[in-house]
Every structure is written in structure tokens, then in C-alpha cells.
Amino acid sequence: MGIFSYLLPKKQNTASTAKERLQIIVARERSGRGGPDYLPQLQEELLAVVRKYVPVDPEAVNVQVDRESGCEVLELNITLPEGEDD
Amino acid sequence: MTKIVVVTSGKGGVGKTTTSAALATGLAMRGHKTTVIDFDVGLRNLDLIMGCERRVVYDLVNVINGDANLKQGLIKDKRVENLFILPASQTRDKDALTQEGVEKVLNGLRDMEMEYVICDSPAGIEKGALMAAYFADEAIVVTNPEVSSVRDSDRILGILSSKTRKAEQGEGDIPARLLLTRYSPERVDRGEMLSVGDVQEILAVDLLGVIPESQAVLNASNSGAPVILDLESDAGLAYADAVARFIGEERPHRFLTAAKKGLFGRLFGG
User: Where does this protein hold ATP (chain B) (predicted)?
Assistant: First the structure.
């Protein structure tokens, strides 16, 4: 290594990959925590309905309950697949 | 007032027992009457790290079941005054650990005017871990800068915020602080390891300390002397700092940056 490492192509920084992956998984796991018990089932049923019309990935649905100044907001995010011509 | 502290992590092998032993020893060295309890029923190990494995007669489950009284179960440390160890049993019956039984033991320690009771949690989120955390006033979450450990720590933080007696009684979350172990600033600099800032950002808890990766930890467990007794080692000093912070002293964090290399090292070093 040392002086020679400058001549080699730079290796991928795995720590930043680790951080990004953790931020995503931890946020997802936190959103399911402490929320109402019906959330996982709600997510499953919504997914089933959406799938009748669009073939979406199970991971493309994100259901979340946020509490904002006394009222609860149910947030639903579905990422639709990209067009097949891509 | 007795303060009950759980040392927990979710993941195994990250340094809970090393930390429990160091913290308890460090508090006792500062004159605080302290007991450290091994909650890992079936896989007793704190006794080895504390170097008292040959003096174990009774254990936590014996005391809970009334086979022995608390004073018979406690092992008095031979090196440090004010320090007591209550080993785990090696019975495989996890149901031996009941909430009432643990409460009885903790109340007994309160009656003995312990200042601190350190509960060394087993890995996982099963009964032993829940019992170690249930009565805690404060938590120390031990984490390695590695993805599975950080994720498990986050899960444990979630459990701590709902499954302690204080949480159940509506007294809110118990304070939880992060102790990052096996830290290697050189590897952080090379982009191979999550930095202390990264881990703190993800877990969003206060930092109690950072323990550098150190040969001293293995030397300490080999010889059965908690690493905090080795004040010539970086890990020992880092634990001593963490103990000082734990009781409210301000200490700057050390061992967070790589040792500077000379010209020779920079040219030819790894």
C-alpha cells in the first residue's frame, strides 16, 4: 500500500454502503414499531389490491403512521414499476 | 439510592460481559458499592471474565429459588473493595428467571445499600434479556461498528422503550447510552468501518464511550482481570473514561483518530 495505493484504482468505500443500508432498514423497522397492530395486515391487503392492477414488488409498499401535533397521519407509499420499454 | 443499569446489545459477542465487568469494577474502584449480575442463564461467563470462576458456589437462580440467601450467593471480589458478583446458573431451564424472583434479588441488593447494580444481559431478545432490562433505571447499549450489531442495537432500543417497568408504568423511556466497542480509527479512515458519528446518527442516542479494538481486552479475559484494571492499555483507559462519564464527569473522547505515521510509515505502511 502506501505510495503505491495512489496508483491503484480507488476501492469502493464499504463503510458508506453500510451506513446507507442501515439507514434504510432501521427506518423501515422503526416505522413498524410502536404503530397499531393492524399495520402489517393492512399493508398486505393493500398490496393484494394494488397487485390486481399493477404487478408491484412486496417491498414497493410502505405504510407508516406518523403523529403530528395531536393527529395521526396514515401515509401510504407505493412505488410503481418502471415501464417495460426501459 | 440503588441505581440499576442494564448492559445490553441484542447481538452476541460485541462486549456486553467485558463492559459489565469493566463498568462494575470501575465504579467500585471509585468507592461505589456495586454488584454485577450475570443474567445469561445456562451460559455463565461473567465469572470467568471477573476471575472468580473457582469461587462460585451458589448462583442467581439458587438465590431466586431460596436455595441460598443473597449474601451466600454474592462473591466478594478479591482485588477491589465494594465489588460483588452474582453469577448465572448453568441450568438450562430459562423459566427459572421470574420477574418476582429478580425483583426479590434486586430489593435485597437495595437493602444492602448497593449504589449500583449492573445487569449483564444475555444476547437476543428472549426472557433472560427482558428480565435483565425490566427493572433498569438506565441502559448501556454495547455496539460494534458493524451492520448487524447496529441493527440489533436499534431493535433493543425499541424494546427498552416499551418493555421496562418504567415504560409500563408510564414513566417514559429509561435513559440509554451507546458504548461503541472494537473501534478501529485506521479502518474508519480507510472507509472500511462505520465511524462513531455514523453509528450515532443511525441510533440517535447519547455516546457514553468508544473502546478501541485492543489486544488488552483478550489479555484481560485470558487472565480473568477486567480490562479496566489495566490502566496502561488504551481499552482500559477508554473504559475508565466511560465510567467517569457514566457518573456525570465530563471527559473528552479519546482514541477516535488513527495514530499519526511518520514519513516512512506513510510511504510504505498499510
Answer: 11-18
Reported ipTM: the value is 0.84
Question: DSSP secondary-structure letter at B126?
Answer: S
- Residue A65, C-beta contacts closer than 8 angstroms, at least 6 positions apart: A31, A35, A36, A39, A72, A73, A74, A75
Cell (9 digits) for B112:
444492602
Strands B206-212 vs B138-143: parallel, antiparallel or unpaired? unpaired
- pTM for this model (two decimals): 0.83
Residue B45, all three cell numbers: 461467563
Q: Tell if the CB–CB gap between A2 and B194 is shorter than 8 Å.
A: no
> How do strand B116-120 and strand B34-38 relate by DSSP bridges?
parallel
Classify residue B165 as exposed, middle or buried by CB count within 10 Å of its CB (0-12, 13-18, 19+). Answer: middle
Across the interface, whether the CB atoms of B270 and A1 are under 8 A apart is answered yes
Q: What is the mean pLDDT of each run of 10 residues along chain B (270 residues)?
A: 96 96 98 97 94 95 94 96 95 82 97 98 93 96 97 95 90 94 96 96 96 96 96 96 97 88 61
Cβ contacts from A onto B, under 8 A: 52
